[in-house]
Amino acid sequence: MSGLTTEHPANESKALPRAPMAVELVSFEPATGAEMWRGPLGDVDEQVARASRAWPAWAAQPLSTRMELLRRFANEVRKDAEAFATLIARETGKPMWEANVEVESVIAKVELSIRAYAERTAQRRLDSALQGTMALRHKPHGVVAVLGPFNYPAHLPCGHIVPALIAGNAVIFKPSEKVPASGEFLARCFHKAGVPAAIMQFCAGGPAEGQKLVAHEGVNGVLFTGSAHTGITINRRLAARPDKLVTLEMGGNNPIVVWDTPKITDAAAIVVQSAFASAGQRCTAARRLIVKDTMIEPLLAEVKSLADRIIFGAPFDSPAPFMGPVIDNAAADGLTESFLYLLSHGGRAIKHLVRPDEALPFLSPAIIDVTAMAEKPDVELFGPILQVIRVSDFDEAIAEANATRYGLVAALVGGTPQEYNRFWGHARAGIVNWNRPTIGPSHAAPVGGTGLSGNHRPSGFYAADYCAYPVASGEMEQPRAAIGVGLR
Ligand code: NAD
């Protein structure tokens, strides 16, 4: 049995018998520290065997049947939207308004994926020689493992799960070990809609279960969203397995460049949204603010004043917070250490990182000028820390923007159309924006990055491409052939 913990951990431990720790997973509410969910770890061998047995019948269903079931899934999510959003808010710590947006994105994913399947992987007849035809069709891979991140426990895994199911794959979904309750709820919505339990399976677990799924002979593909560190580990593990599909959606060290603009207030709002939404826990969050030196005083004054007004608090607080805590105390400790590292290596604090309660992972937005640092660490600080770099000309701004091994998003705020053209041409990233935040990519477009941000298999609208493989067939109703040359 798995399920939500309703009592305080101290009381509950007396009331309920517990399975041994080694076979259990437990999650906690970041905003309170209270236990949230407890349940057994997934049995990877058993789950893969079940999925392998069930998969051929699922793949043989007409596409229209699978699409219909997925539409029913969207309806199930809609019916339970409030409860689902509440659960996500509790388990991730994100504000309720943001959890509502996440649930809406899950619902929208179905129609987007149906459209994407039709546009990207539709069946086609092509001309061929000798009156035969050449047909292009797509086949599912088989059993795929979806490994999800903690920050969007429903929306991002659905970016793989929904198109994978439409294409006819069986899915074993292992959410992040930090958000099993949200993952389990999501899986139930599929089952209530009629997607067979063996075809869409929830697997509770952490890195160990992730590793087992990756290495399992019965798993034909690994659809991963998470950190570059884990993505590279998976890629290495499967380096000698070209037969297995590997899609990696990873992090970023995203730049936002602010250039000449009279609209300082708007520019500052774009910067603050980009850096601090979700307490900076978005793959697309702006980590580095690159600013023309003549703009730096007015812009930073405005950014700081906005950041000072940000309410950070628990998901259901009133008035609603702009952002919640980071996911857990280990993350808060790591971010605090990173901020101190930047400070002690030449960084100048513009707004300090404050942790009002050492027992909980709430962090204030922080801004630090790192221009003087001899070596700026090219790492993803997955939290509310914005690093500022001042530059004097546009080439320097582009060079700074590209001074990263990652390549998820780059944004320019201000500048002329010609400067944007140059920026667009030179920025190495899968998403390049102008006068728009780095966050909130459209899932009606491909979402993916270059460098350490991905392996050239973008998700979003192009997820359809990797969820099925193309099969080209030359076809004729009867064999008809003659050898015209070279015969004695
Ligand atoms: P993570 O890499 O720690 O974990 C992601 C998933 O991988 C989890 O399910 C985890 O249990 C599993 N895992 C961990 N080690 C594994 C291993 N060795 N083998 C197999 N599976 C393993 O990531 P996270 O902390 O949950 O999420 C935050 C990260 O995700 C950030 O880096 C963020 O930028 C990135 N992210 C990327 C995107 C994108 O679309 N590019 C979207 C959201 C988040």
Compact description:
It is built from 15 helices and 22 strands. With 488 residues, it is α/β, with parallel strands linked by helices.
**And the CATH topology of the largest domain?**
Aldehyde Dehydrogenase, Chain A, domain 1
Q: Which assembly state applies to the chains in this document?
A: single chain
CATH class of the largest domain: Alpha Beta
Q: How many helices does DSSP assign?
A: 15
Percentage of β-strand residues: 15-25%
Identify the CATH homologous superfamily of the largest domain.
Answer: Aldehyde Dehydrogenase, Chain A, domain 1
* CATH architecture identity of the largest domain: 3-Layer(aba) Sandwich
Question: How would you describe this protein?
Answer:
Helix content is 39%, strand content 20%. A 7-stranded mixed sheet has the order 13-14-15-12-11-17-18, with helices on both faces. The protein is globular. It has helices at 9-15, 44-60, 63-79, 81-92, 96-121, 155-167, 180-193, 207-215, 228-237, 264-276, 296-309, 329-344, 394-401, 417-426, 463-467; strands spanning 3-4, 24-28, 35-40, 124-127, 133-140, 143-147, 170-174, 200-202, 221-225, 245-249, 254-258, 286-292, 348-351, 366-369, 385-391, 406-407, 409-413, 431-434, 446-447, 450-451, 459-460, 468-475. The protein contains 15 helices and 22 strands. A hairpin with a 5-residue loop joins strand 4 (124-127) and strand 5. Residues 147-152, 156, 174, 176-177, 206-207, 210-211, 214, 225-227, 230, 233-234, 249-251, 283, 380, 382, 447 line the site of nicotinamide-adenine-dinucleotide.
List keywords for this structure.
488 residues; Aldehyde Dehydrogenase, Chain A, domain 1; Aldehyde Dehydrogenase, Chain A, domain 2; 2 domains; seven-stranded mixed sheet; five-stranded parallel sheet; 15 helices; binds nicotinamide-adenine-dinucleotide
